[in-house]
Design brief:
- The complex is a heterotrimer of chains A (396), B (259) and C (382).
- The longest helix of chain A has 16 residues, at 85-100.
- Chain A folds into 3 domains: 2-54, Alpha-Beta Plaits; 65-253, HUPs (Rossmann fold, 3-Layer(aba) Sandwich), CATH 3.40.50; 269-390, TPP-binding domain (Rossmann fold), CATH 3.40.50.
- Chain A has helices spanning 14-18, 42-46, 85-100, 116-122, 141-155, 166-178, 289-302, 310-314, 345-348, 368-371, 380-395; strands at residues 2-4, 24-27, 30-33, 52-54, 71-75, 77-78, 81-82, 104-110, 127-132, 159-163, 183-187, 189-192, 199-205, 210-215, 222-226, 243-246, 259-265, 278-282, 305-308, 335-339, 356-361, 374-377.
- Helix content of chain A is 26%, strand content 26%.
- Chain C folds into 3 domains: 7-114, Acyl-CoA dehydrogenase/oxidase, N-terminal domain (Butyryl-Coa Dehydrogenase, subunit A, domain 1), CATH 1.10.540.10; 120-228, Butyryl-CoA Dehydrogenase, subunit A, domain 2, CATH 2.40.110.10; 231-380, Butyryl-CoA Dehydrogenase, subunit A, domain 3, CATH 1.20.140.
- Chain C is of the alpha+beta class.
- In chain C, the strands form 3 sheets. A 4-stranded mixed sheet of chain C has the order 1-4-5-8.
- Classes of the chains: A alpha/beta (396), B alpha/beta (259), C alpha+beta (382).
- Chains in contact: A-B, A-C, B-C.
- Chains A and B meet through helix 1, helix 2, helix 6, strand 11 and strand 13 of A and strand 4, helix 3, helix 4, strand 9 and strand 10 of B.
């Protein structure tokens, strides 16, 4: 419930301005809340006199909270290999485990996984719970969820992390619900709060326009799915020692009401540039079609789609569906790299809400630099090839 | 088929901004809309009804103004609407929300299929669909891109994965979450809007659904927000200096998170 | 300005606006470029129950009037006059059946038109008979239980894409103004074929074709109403449909004004957005004044017609002239405000200017309309 201390309230109206839901307004010099309030807390933060607070009841803490210890990650194995996010989870998991001075374990579900557990150990796992069964060959939410739930109940980790992949985001909520505990989706930052060892889980909301830090203080385990390609992978150490435990699931837990008939792999090249996370765009500065080929190379190197300014499309270096701008598409990827694009307003209006914008142009006064997060003034025919090389190196 | 579609009224996420200096959400011009994924969920429910007969009931947990999206849903083909609303539900995380929705759905009676949108564009968690399925103990498939058949009490469908899709069968009663690629939502019809205007919406509060006070709203939540802030990346304007090699080195370092 | 619409009228506006924003606007440039008939969009309009706006409820329609159609067409016109014309022309083709057809005929055709399952078209114009409609040469001769039609209609909107055609043909030339009758010809009738699709300056998404009747035989019951009523029903039909065309002009003018103002605020020359210059401001002000005046006249005329007055021709003609002349001026001015960019096909205003021209020509040229108004004034002041 939202409480307003009418003595402290000075009727300034800042809370009314800040409320997205029109739930609070100043009436006769005092703030009044109505039933539209969603307890989002924006007004609490904005109140200059501290007159607003959210009243919370005493929460019951899970009885055996103190018994839960250790960091566990879900290693995602599909089509014969580990998803790269598994190594990222080990990277951040290792950091958290070291901070808490507890072991880092990994749970591996699948079929025919010789040598995989060893790899997990080399990337930082102290223990690997390996569940290798033919029934687990094809992913089903129910089976994977049952097994993970059982392993968690048995080994009581304080934190469980999984990748925010299609698989992770699909079945981890089943596990969290079964365990009656909190889950935070798609985290981009994780940290332990030193005062009480609670996991602080930071993630984007409102389509990335806002960041929120979440905690799960009263129940265990604290669960989170982690956005791929954000956390760092640690360097592997093939001599690292760790325990590999074969876990035998109970037969009745290897059931799934949903039947998976088969997987169909699809080529990802019908990229709609408005959907991608990364766009590399080229403009007049590429000089000709051959020069524009550089853009495709850089896009391939970063795993992004190709965009273009109107100049490039008009010169027929690339087709119209790739055009970004007033008379092309509006995009807002996480990363937009503009090469040889001057940044005229007609182009900028199509990409200015990208999360990070990189501009490479030989003209220091090019307007593109006004919207770029990072700018390089230089000859793109020198810069871009080197950039491609360096990126390929990093990606390995 | 008795179909339930869960819908949510959300602020239009693309317009929501946090002022990084004051850390407050700017309110102006942010419209309230039906969660876009829910429009696709509703459309699929209405199509199934048109093909196989039955009814579509839309359910929403929200404050009183959420009635607007329930009426919009009726204008697009839903037959009945249920609003689950109570001040005590405020501040609910997905755990408390799935409890509340499960209670309301149990109260509403038997069903064959529940359809949800993949995620809500404000919370972006994608947790309510699976959580609800678990609470109701029904089978569930997420990221449904296409329903290919309905035979012998099983729905055949395509479920999107990171590398392609799975062909999957789910027995009913069950729950699906759908992605945008599944269909083109229809525009409301005139007859639909007139029906929506006069329809009486079934409103349920905490007592009506037999909810336990400690399981709903902020008290019933397992997670809570510690703080909210504007994303850091925006607003930097850094020119990278030095030789080409140095510039490239700096840039690749900065772009690590994306590689 | 608030025109105090009823809740139902607001629903019509909301649905039409959503279709315009979600479906018509994103596709209009491509439809214009490819000269494609907008089947998918018309299906969406049908599913939204809008084809039946003016059709009585007993035939599955909404039971609304001229004003309701005006509201929908204003939105569609804002999107694309080509698409909107395809919808409006179907209404035009349906009106004669509603006005003069027998109960059986209405039961047969109206429900499918109301549901948007079948589209209609109106066929009057010929190569030698445009403004002078009495000069038509298509004939209809009764032969036993069938009418036999011979002749060629020119520039028929929805020709080739409609299924139901209301055709005006001479049944007895000696009877002068009572010498023509109206018939329903269906696309499957033998002896009925189409010429090729015309290439036009504007409304390129709309299909315009010749209709060719060579011993086209149709059952006797396809006669709409009585023999000899042809021209009378045509006049009544056009009275009803003209406010719709006027409304297209209002929607088009609104679209053009919107583009011009947005552009003028963004375009910086001589250190300021050009909207800061009086020359531009005055242009925009005049555009806005003329647009609103036209809108008010169209709304008033439509409501007047819905009150079933004895005389509706003057109101109908006035709003058509006013709004369509306005649309031509406002779209031309919009291109001027966008200047070089306005001339380029990349930007939507050149299409708007091209589309505007036809509004001053079809459904009775604005010159003919002025004739009508002049004659009505003459009659009034006796």
């Amino acid at each position: 419930m939202l409480r307003i201390d009418i003595e402290a309230c000075i009727g300034c109206g800042v809370c009314e301005e800040v409320c997205t839901f029109e739930a609070i307004e100043v009436v006769d010099g005092v703030a009044v809340v109505n039933e539209k309030c969603t307890l989002c807390g924006s007004c609490v933060d904005s109140c200059e006199t501290g007159a607003i607070s959210i009243e919370t009841k005493e929460k019951t803490v899970q009885a055996d909270l103190g018994d839960w210890s250790g960091i566990m990650i879900y290693a995602e194995f599909r089509h014969g290999k580990l998803a790269p996010v598994s190594f990222e989870l080990l990277g951040i998991g290792r950091e958290l485990a070291d901070q808490q001075q507890v072991p880092l374990s990994a749970i591996l579900l699948g079929s025919g996984m010789d040598g995989v557990a060893r790899e997990l150990v080399s990337y930082g796992a102290d223990i690997v719970y390996q569940v290798d069964a033919p029934a687990l060959e094809l992913f089903t939410d129910e089976m994977y969820g049952n097994i993970l739930e059982d392993v968690i109940r048995e080994h009581k980790p304080e934190v469980v992390l999984a990748g925010a992949t299609a698989i992770g985001r699909s079945f981890i909520p089943l596990v969290a619900t079964a365990l009656a505990t909190g889950l935070t989706a798609d985290c981009t930052q994780l940290a332990i709060r030193p005062e009480d060892g609670v996991l602080l889980q930071t993630r984007p909301a409102f389509g990335g326009n806002i960041m929120a830090t979440i905690e799960c203080p009263y129940t265990r385990p604290q669960m989170a799915t982690v956005r791929p390609r954000v956390m760092k992978t640690a360097a592997p150490d093939p001599d690292r020692k760790g325990e590999i435990i074969n876990y035998q699931p109970k037969a009745e837990r290897l059931q799934s009401r949903v039947r998976v008939l088969r997987n169909v792999l699809e080529e990802q090249d019908q990229v709609n540039i408005t959907e991608g996370d990364i766009i590399v765009a080229g403009g007049r500065g590429l000089d000709n079609e051959k020069g524009f080929a550089l853009i495709k190379q850089l896009a391939d190197a970063v795993g992004g789609a190709v965009g273009a300014s109107r100049a490039a499309v008009d010169s027929a270096w690339i087709a119209y569906p790739h055009q970004v701008g007033q008379t092309g598409k509006t995009v807002n990827p996480k990363l937009y790299i503009a090469c040889g694009i001057s940044g005229a307003i007609q182009h900028v209006v199509g990409m200015q809400s990208s999360e990070t914008i990189v501009a490479i142009n030989k003209d220091p006064h090019a307007p593109i630099f006004d919207v770029a997060t990072y700018g390089i003034v230089g000859d793109l025919f020198e810069v871009v090839p080197k950039l491609i090389e360096k990126i390929r190196e990093r990606r390995g | 088929m008795k179909i339930i579609v869960c819908i949510k009224q959300v602020p239009d996420a693309k317009d929501v901004r946090l002022d990084p200096k004051t850390n407050t959400m700017a309110r102006e011009g942010v419209a309230s809309i039906m969660n876009p994924f829910d429009r696709h969920a509703l459309e699929e429910g209405v199509r199934l009804k048109e093909q196989h007969g039955g009814t579509v009931t839309v359910v929403s947990m929200g404050p009183p103004q959420a009635e607007a999206v329930l009426r919009d849903a009726v204008a697009c083909g839903a037959d009945e609407a249920v609003l689950v609303s109570d001040r005590a539900f405020a501040g609910a995380d997905t755990w408390a929300t799935t409890y509340t929705l499960a209670k309301a759905i149990e109260k509403n009676g038997p069903f064959d299929l529940i359809i949800c949108g993949k995620q809500a564009i404000d919370g972006d968690t994608a947790q309510v669909g699976p959580g609800l399925a678990k609470r109701l103990n029904i089978p569930y498939v997420s990221y449904v891109r296409k329903i290919t058949a309905f035979e012998n009490g099983f729905l055949s469908l395509h479920r999107l994965m990171d590398d392609g899709y799975d062909e999957v069968e789910i027995p009913l009663p069950g729950l699906l979450t759908v992605v945008k690629e599944i269909n083109e939502p229809r525009v409301p019809s005139l007859k639909g809007k007139m029906k929506a205007k006069s329809l009486s919406i079934n409103t349920l509060n905490a007592e009506d659904i037999g909810a336990d006070a400690n399981s709903i709203g902020l008290p019933g939540s397992t997670t809570q927000v510690v703080k909210v802030f504007a994303p850091v990346f925006k607003g930097e304007r850094t020119m990278l200096e030095g030789t080409v090699d140095e510039q490239v080195e700096q840039l690749v370092n900065k772009l690590e998170p994306y590689l | 300005m608030d025109y105090f619409l009823t809740e139902e009228q607001r629903m019509i506006v909301d649905i039409s606006r959503q279709i315009t924003d979600d479906k018509i606007i994103p596709q209009r440039a491509e439809l214009d470029e490819k000269e494609e008939f907008p089947n998918a969009i018309l299906d969406d309009i049908a599913k939204a129950d809008l084809f039946g706006l003016f059709i009585p409820e007993e035939y599955g329609g909404f039971g609304g009037g001229c004003f309701d159609v005006v509201l929908a067409l204003e939105q569609f016109g804002r999107g694309c006059v080509g698409v909107a014309t395809s919808y409006a022309a179907s209404a035009l083709g349906a009106y004669p059946i509603l006005l003069a057809g027998s109960e059986e005929m209405k039961q047969k055709y109206m429900p499918e038109i109301a549901a948007g399952k079948k589209k209609a078209a109106f066929a009057l114009t010929e190569a030698n008979a445009g403004s002078d409609a009495s000069g038509i040469q298509t004939t209809a001769v009764l032969d036993g239980d069938e009418w036999v039609l011979n002749g060629t209609k020119q520039w028929i909107t929805n020709g080739g894409d409609a299924q139901i055609y209301t055709v005006v043909a001479i049944t007895d030339r000696s009877k002068g103004p009572r010498g023509a009758s109206l018939f329903v010809v269906e696309d499957t009738d033998a002896g009925f074929s189409y010429g090729q699709k015309e290439k036009k300056l504007g409304i390129r998404a709309s299909s315009t074709r010749e209709l060719i009747f060579r011993d086209c035989r149709i059952p006797k019951d396809r006669l709409i109403g009585k023999v000899g009523l042809g021209f009378i029903v045509v006049m009544k039909t056009l009275d009803l449909s003209r406010p719709g065309i006027a409304s297209l002009g209002v929607g088009l003018g609104q679209a053009a004004l919107d583009e011009a103002v947005v552009y003028a605020k963004q375009r910086v020359q001589f250190g300021k957005p050009i909207i800061a210059f009086q020359a531009v401001q005055h242009m925009l002000a005049d555009m806005a004044i003329q647009l609103e005046a036209a809108r008010a006249l169209v709304y008033a005329a439509a409501k007047h017609i819905d009150a079933h007055p004895k005389d509706m021709s003057k109101a109908s003609s006035m709003c058509k002239v006013c709004a369509t002349d306005m649309a031509m001026k406002v779209t031309t001015d919009a291109v001027q405000v966008l200047a070089g960019y306005g001339y380029m096909r990349e930007y939507p205003v050149e299409k708007m200017m091209r589309d505007a021209k036809i509004l001053q020509i079809y459904e009775g040229t604005n010159q003919i309309q002025r004739n009508v108004i002049g004659q009505e004034l003459n009659k009034e002041y006796t």
